[in-house]
Amino acid sequence: MKYLLLISLLVAGITTRAQEYNVALIPDSIKTDADAVLRNEYLEVYIKSLEKTIVKHKYAITIFNENGAEYAKYQKSYDTKSPLYDISGTLYDAAGKKLKTVKRKDIVDVSLQDGMSLMLDDRIKAHNFYYNIYPYTIEYEDEQDIKGTYTLPSWYPVNGEKYGVLQSKYKVIYPADYHLRYKEYNYNGKPTITTDKDITITWELNNYKPLITEFAQPSLREILPQVRIAPTDFVYQGVKGSFATWQDYGKFQLMLNKDRDVLPDNIKQQVHSLTDKLTTIEEKTKVLYDFLQKNTRYISIQLGIGGFQPFEAKYVAEKKYGDCKALSNYMVALLKEAGVSANYVIAYGGSGKGSDRVDASFPAEYFNHVIACVPNGKDTIWLECTNQDVSAGYMGEFTGNRKVYVVDEKSGGGYITKTPTYKYTDNLQLRTVTATIDKEGNLQAEVKTHFTGLAQELQHGLLHEATPEERTKYLNEVISLPTYKIEKNDYKETKGYIPAMDEILIINSPNYASTSSKRLFVTPNMFNKSTARLPTDKPRKYDLELSYPFRDIDSVNITIPDGYTVEALPQNMNLTNKFGNYKVSYTVNANTIQLIRLKERINSRFPASDYEELAKFYETMYKADRAKIVFVKKEG
């Protein structure tokens, strides 16, 4: 009887779990438009003391299609001082039937190498069922001991766009005498707080519909719910510090950096040889930055407390390599020897929206990168010390236009400030096209383009990071002509706070112009057509954020065969509105066409109610950029 009862209980348990993960149980409101749905999640952060935190995580995600398959991968980093264990995983089919479980031999355990690292403590444990019969559900569970409290796991229940959530629960437990700080973002509920020997705070998110992407929407960090927690006092690798204020954070970093800026005598001599005859801060900075670029290279070294403490300047001088911390510390030391005051700056490096992650009102660990700066009145000189080719003073898309933390002993620790923001007048694309079209409609063109600021970063990469073969291959794939071949490409760089690149291309495009027995059809705008066409069939939900300002000016001169006259000429256009400017004009003189085109976009934010006006503006540009001039053969 006991045996039969046990079997019944086991069968009941299996049936319950199958019912739990049956895809049919997900409400239509959650699974419609979803690539994946979080069925349930439990994330517990138990702060036992300043020296120890235990994190438990269990979750199940239903994957609906190939786009959601990335969420099926299990991957988590750890190191020898923060072990990761008790990993389990299960795969279920659409009906909730168990198909497979994770075995220890199935879990990949590898060093976290990024291709530029020499030594790392970090490792990764990873697993993937590699299942592709959709929909299906994966379930994972793990536990991790974190030595210290410097970085505490925050809560991001929604992993991205088209990701629905049925239930996610975040629980933080800490001693009553521990001062934990937290901040909620885009969270409408209220946490549950219980007080006993320990304090327990629980947040929960239920029935969250998938986010549908909108053109030029704000960063997901502004939209999706999250809760960030941070310590007041902490211990990292046995070193005590505080996040009570930004000044306290700076004191912690100053302690880690103390006495690590001492240069060897031979380097001191080289510094003085290079700078003693120079008179300005700018001259000395540029010369020493050039010295850094020519004599060091970037390699990541993160052992022990190396994730936050730079290697000594004498180490970099001897080895001629270092990570971002070591190279920036070395640069500051070089400048200090030359009598130039400079600062070690902690930043978040990354491109695109959401790269400005720092909340100045909530001191916490936001950062993944280190740069340097030289205060120079209103003209602070910013230095990216890991790049051997970038111009002194230029931050670009990777570290520009964001809040950073300047470590500064004079101020008692440091302060938050912002890196340069590049305006539309900084990001130029000035293009001159000289082209001929023969009787068969074949095009040959010389294209000279002057790029500056953010607009030159692609060309900078083609010059410095690609081989000639890779550059030619890329150029022969990227231009929006039906058929063409790049016969020649050439680049010239001009360094500066707003760097510039000059590109010259020789292009042949067979049958570019359409021909008939009597007519020739020419689209004069060859290389810079607006591509966006914005749908207006659904109401706009979020603000519009046009985050990349630029100015494009195209001057196109085309010579066509003799014997044609204009039959149809597009109208000139001049549009100016809150989003920017668009102007285009056409001139035909004998057998020569001239197109002048200007497009400017400002960096600004607009309410959702402006969307239809923006869509109309984009549609007008889309059509205008594809306008054709029709020529007819002269009679006789």
From TrEMBL:
Ranges for domain Transglutaminase-like: 271-362
Superkingdom classification of source: Bacteria
What range(s) does the DUF3857 domain occupy?
A: 55-211
Report the Pfam families cross-referenced here.
DUF3857 (PF12969), Transglut_core (PF01841)
Q: What name does UniProt use for this protein? A: DUF3857 domain-containing protein
State the organism named in the record.
Parasediminibacterium paludis
